[in-house]
Amino acid sequence: MPSSMPATSTRKTAATVPEAAARFSTGDAVRVANGAVFGHVRTPQYVRGKIGTVERICGRFRAPEELSRGKYDGAQRALYRVRFLQVEVWPDYHGDPSDTLDVEIYEHWLEPVRTKR
Amino acid sequence: MNELTATAHHDVGGAPGHEPIPREQHAFLPWELRVDALMWILGDAGRPGGRRMTVDELRRGIESLSPDQYRSLGYYEKWLTSLVAIMREKGIVSGAELRKRLAEVTIAHEGEHALEHAGDEHAQDGGDRA
Amino acid sequence: MSAVHEHDDRSFELLERAFRELLIEKGVLSQAEVDERVELMYSRTPALGARVVARAWFDSEFKARLLADGSAAVRELGIDVGTLKLVVIENTPEVHNLVVCTLCSCYPRMLLGMPPDWYKSIAYRARAVREPRAVLAEFGVEPEPGTTIRVHDSTADMRYLVLPRRPAGTENLSEADCAALVTRDAMIGAG
Fold this sequence. Notes:
The structure holds 3 protein chains of 3 kinds.
Chain A: E1 29-32, E2 51-62, H1 64-67, E3 76-85, H2 86-89, E4 100-106, E5 110-112
Antiparallel strand pairs in A: 1-2, 1-5, 2-3, 3-4
Chain B: H1 3-6, H2 30-42, H3 55-63, H4 67-72, H5 75-89, H6 95-125
Helix pairs in contact in B: 2-5, 3-5
Chain C: H1 2-5, H2 11-25, H3 31-43, H4 46-58, H5 60-68, H6 70-76, E1 85-90, E2 95-100, H7 109-112, H8 117-120, H9 122-127, H10 132-138, E3 148-153, E4 158-163, H11 175-181, H12 184-188
Parallel strand pairs in C: 1-4, 2-3
């Protein structure tokens, strides 16, 4: 695992999860990892540590962290579109409280959020 | 936010400031389009022999520029700087051969430039200049 | 390589020439391939996206397929989108969509051609996600109060096309005439 992968990635590897499976489903609450980052990643800073909801599953793709280092045959990972409320992302957000920000995030950057029932 | 992520100068989403969005459009220069073409060809997995690099490698090269370069270089200047760095890293071209070739094309260009100017004078004689 | 970092008029143009010549000599690629790709860039314009939008306005079943699987629906029209993974997002009276790429300049080039300079600017990339209404106002777009603004950051493998609302008063226009009304900026969400 390259050092640029966030800590959550170690919990889920190609060996433990079948290729076709996606860990999260549409509507699931997820939190974006917020660890130290080295090298190339495609998860913007502004969304790290934030909680959003899976809007859709986009398919499976290789990780940019590995592709950027010349590893073209790494495991395919589920990619999600995660929807965040703007007011959750920016504490000083001026706009409608229903405004959203949708961001594509790879599974190894996401961790589950236990929702209260 | 930790110190390491704070140095990612390309990651500008939500950066403070309200600077107006510049709306001027420059005309693409032929060499800029060729740089774009080079990237697409080198990254095309469907070509015989497969791809030589990925767009994520291009991005890593761009993100490795200094913050000053990231802000001051043009869009395709950044692409080209990265493409060259990645191809050197992979040993596909060497710094020495690139320096040698650059010196050669610079001399060739100066020769062509002189010819262009000769042509300009000719055009001027004919009253073609506005 | 000092020449790479000198920022004068010709240094990058010359570097491109030197670099390309070496790649050709080494058999990595050919000049014909470069010329072909450049031609392809000229052939892709926002007219392609506009055709898709107008078809969706005229054919609700096509629109449903477009929203469900953008790439498959666009291929129905005979448009070659290669490996593009297209997500089409629909503007409605309740929702206005805006597309940005905060990390670089990802853009549905297969349908809109080259991204405009403003789309690649740091100001747009920085502000679109944080103050979309102020950004839209600069483009002359002012959604009604109460409209939800959805910003889409193209961070990974998907590319986005906004399906704008059909303008009022176009009921008697043909599909081709409607396509001619669709602007590039509208398909980004900024027009």
